Amino acid sequence: MKSWIIGIIGLAGLAAIVAGAYASPEVLLGVAVLTAAGIGIGWPHFLGVPARKTLAAVIALPGIGSAVAAAYLPAPGFLEWTPAFMALGVMAVFIVQLLRGTGQAQRLESTLGSCAGVVLSCLGAGWIAAYRFNGVREMFVVTAISAAVALLAGLIRWPDRVVAPLGIVGAGLAAPLAGLVFSNIAVLPAAIVGVVVGAVLVSFRRVAILRSARLSFPALLGAGLGPVSAVGSLAYFIDKLLLY
């Protein structure tokens, strides 16, 4: 059941990102900021670690800063500040752990997991970069469709050995089809985007299933928005490598 709820949250977040892109750049930025905030709030709950309020701010703020920078930096350096925000977030995580003192519970899990949350939060800026890149939205749409197919496959309550290949293959097939219908993107770049996006999303589904504890709504929110945030940067960099 929890993987189903996480998938629904992911689909809702993805739909909000696409709607924001077609509304205006300001709306897309607002969606990216809310996504980073949702990951920040939810990820510590998903990890089940202490100091959740502090870690929520540490995870969310770098993602918000990265999104704002991606929205206003001149081309082509949309994500130039993203590594800096990631580094600041990681340093803040270590500072929080130092302030907690020695001998605290789940210190290693909290440090490593929160650093991963910072990365996921900051990668959401890739959706803005993909939207702004040369004014071309085709790869943005292709990525969104392939991600939606992978998330829909994850809703099927079958074993991972069936759902994982289904999600990857489905996303890999949906992407070039979307590219042919909505743009003139070549089949190979679109297929690569679809396969990579599908692999990332089904991997997160496996992580959620392995989390055996009962998850609260904030935890489900963080687990649902995290992978959706990550695939935006993947699409942007694959777009730059293969199309331009």
From TrEMBL:
The lineage of its organism: Bacteria, Bacillati, Actinomycetota, Actinomycetes, Micrococcales. The chain crosses the membrane at residues 30-48, 55-75, 81-99, 111-133, 139-156, 163-182, 188-207, 219-238. This is Permease. Keywords: Membrane, Transmembrane, Transmembrane helix. The keyword GTP-binding does not apply. It comes from Arthrobacter oryzae.
